[in-house]
Amino acid sequence: MSSSNPPQLFLLADHIKLSLLERQRAISLNLSPNSQDVQISRSLDSLRSGIESLESQVEDKPDDAISSQLPRLRSQLSELTSQFTTTTTSPTSPTLTSPNDPSLTADFAAAQSKKPRPSTKSVRFTDNTSDDDDPNRASLFPYRDDPSDASPDHTDLSNQQIHAYHQDVIRDQDEQLDRLGESIGRQRELSMQIGDELDGQVLLLDDVEEGVDRHAGQLRRARGRLDRFSRKARENWSLSVIVALIIILVLLIVITK
């Protein structure tokens, strides 16, 4: 804990004091005192390491502000360690009952109190089932989906009338659900028709794609034939010129005779 300083260690000592007071309180109430022993032991080790770190710091670089607090810290560490190793039900040193930080005085007083903490739980049930004594019944009865509907006056209704009213409400809801089911059925049929139409369009697109592929193949073959004819024509160009010249010469001979 090279970054420790006396105020932090005094605050850690206060937390150890509170834990020890809670431990002693548990012992006095015949409760298990071992639930925080591991945490207290670790805190004591941290306090001891912090004091040793301050001692090393003072040896390397003297500091009167730190040196003046070390004896008090050592004394509290010794007393807290001694108190932790004992099982007495009351503090053996005033150091344990007085905090270093005055703001923790109320916490120390509560930790030293032997009185059990008052329960804050309360029972909200009652044996009185009168509707007139329950101000929330009017706002909750009857249940309705549409808050704009006005609640009927049920002050003078008997149980049979209330039951009949709820039967009517349920009947209306059933009718609405039936109409909603019919609407959903129509939407389902429409969706199926749209799906069939899309399937037909997919088949047409497949046919068009096959036709395009077929014509593309024919165009490639025709272009290949044209390329071959053009190549042969270039190769036989000289022979064609010689034949043309022979024909012209024969015609001139015939004409001159």
Can you characterise this structure?
- The structure is a single chain.
- The protein has 9 helices and no strands.
- By secondary structure, the protein is mainly alpha-helical.
- Helix content is 70%, strand content 0%.
- The protein folds into 2 domains: 107 residues, no CATH class; 89 residues.
- The relative contact order is 0.06.
* Strand count: 0
Tell me the β content: under 5%
Number of helices: 9
Q: How helical, in percent, are the residues?
A: over 70%
Q: What is the residue-mean pLDDT, rounded to a whole number?
A: 76
Round the Cα radius of gyration to an integer and report it: 52 Å
Which structural class fits the helix and strand makeup? mainly alpha
Number of domains: 2
Give the low-confidence spans: 116-132, 139-143
Q: What characterizes the major β-sheet? A: none
N to C succession of SSEs: HHHHHHHHH
Query: What characteristic shape results from the CA principal axes?
Result: elongated
> Kindly, what is the distance between the CA atoms of the first and last residues, rounded to a whole number of angstroms?
133 Å
